[in-house]
Amino acid sequence: MDTNRILAELHAERDRIDQAISALEAVNSTGRPRVGRPPGTARKAGRRGGMSAAARRKMSRLLKQRWAQGKMNRAKASKPVRRMSRAARKRIAAAQRARWAKVRAQKKAA
Fold first, then answer.
1. What is the tens place of the pLDDT at every residue in 67-96?
2. Sign of torsion over alpha carbons 103, 104, 105, 108
3. Which of 42, 72, 74, 85 is the residue whose CA sits 20 to 30 A from 103?
4. Cα angle vertex 56, ends 44, 48, to 5°?
5. pLDDT value for 33
C-alpha cells in the first residue's frame, strides 16, 4: 500500500467535507449550527386553533342566522293554529251550561 496515495485521498475527502460544511453554513442564516428545536416547532404552549376574534364573531353570527332559518322552516312546516269563532265558542259555552244545569237538577231531585 502506498501511504502517499492514502494521504492524498484523505486530504481530498477532507476538502469535500469542508466544502459541504461551508455550503450548509451559508444556508444557515446565523452562520453557526442550530441548537434545540427546528424553527417550525417553536409554538406557544397551550394555544390551540388559530381563529381570530373577528372570525369567531362572524362564525357566531352565521350560526345564529342558520338556526333562525331552521326555526322559520319548522314553523312553516307545522300545522296552522286553528282558532274557534265567537259563535262556535258561544254555542259550546251554552251547551256546557245546559249540562251543568242538568247535573244540578239531578242532584236536587236525589
1. 998 887 777 777 777 889 999 999 999 999
2. positive
3. 85
4. 20
5. 57
